[in-house]
Q: What sequence folds into this?
């Protein structure tokens, strides 16, 4: 098929100069269109081949996925948490590649088994989510859960809490991973800016890496909770913006009073 298309294009190129009504522009445009069609045909054929290979692989590994899920459930019933966790993660890898089941459900199961398997002090940072919640917020003059704000570009990161004191401004956020082994970080250039006062630069981070490093979230749907600390806002500030330059993290009009 590709050979026939190429021969047709070659014949068209040979034929066109003999036609007096064709301009140089017409000829170049026609040639470009023909070769564009050839390239599109080749790309379509390659995509089709890739889809066929993917479908064959999906069928080939489906039983392996089902076996891993069944073994995971059996280990879970026997309260063999570490074995169950390993099998669920084995199934999750296949599921991320081929989509046999609801990955959100598998990810939630894996997250719950981290605790039961005793892996709360190491491993993925999602195990340390609770450490970003302070035991005492009484020192802050203003604390608001799920504060109002405007964010038009990022739907997978949300602000869970804002706490303002005379010594710091604390923002607690949660990011939901869109895919396997998703890397997340924060730039040192991140800042907040109140409606009363100038920019205040980032001074501390909890449970998140500073760029160029990355904190890895292992599975799609897992939630990483982290905290960012900035200098105190002026007493008369009623709202502020949080911005990480050159990213979709731009949260505006965050209420702080």
A:
């Amino acid at each position: 098929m590709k050979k026939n298309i190429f021969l047709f294009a070659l014949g068209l190129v040979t034929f066109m100069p003999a036609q007096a009504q064709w301009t140089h522009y017409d000829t170049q445009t026609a040639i470009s269109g023909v070769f564009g069609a050839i390239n599109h045909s080749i790309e379509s054929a390659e995509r089709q081949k890739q889809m066929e290979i993917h479908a064959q692989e999906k069928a080939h590994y489906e039983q392996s996925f089902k076996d891993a899920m069944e073994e995971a459930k059996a280990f879970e019933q026997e309260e063999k948490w570490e074995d169950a966790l390993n099998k669920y993660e084995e199934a999750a890898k296949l599921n991320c590649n081929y989509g046999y089941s609801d990955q959100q459900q598998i990810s939630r199961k894996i997250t719950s088994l981290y605790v039961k398997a005793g892996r709360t002090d190491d491993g993925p940072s999602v195990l340390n989510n609770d450490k970003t919640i302070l035991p005492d917020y009484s020192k802050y003059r203003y604390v608001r859960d799920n504060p109002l704000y405007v964010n038009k570009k990022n739907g997978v990161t949300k602000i869970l809490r804002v706490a303002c004191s005379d010594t710091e401004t604390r923002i607690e956020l949660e990011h939901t991973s869109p895919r396997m082994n998703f890397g997340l970080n924060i730039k040192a250039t991140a800042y907040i800016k109140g409606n009363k006062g100038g920019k205040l630069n980032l001074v501390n981070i909890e449970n998140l890496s500073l760029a160029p490093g990355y904190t890895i979230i292992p599975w799609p749907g897992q939630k990483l909770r982290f905290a960012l600390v900035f200098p105190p806002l002026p007493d008369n500030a009623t709202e502020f913006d949080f911005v990480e330059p050159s990213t979709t993290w731009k949260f505006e009009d965050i209420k702080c009073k």
Q: What stands out?
A: The chain has four helices and twelve strands. The longest strand covers residues 157-164. Residues 2-10, 12-20 have pLDDT under 50 and may be disordered. Helices lie at 2-15, 24-77, 81-98, 103-116.
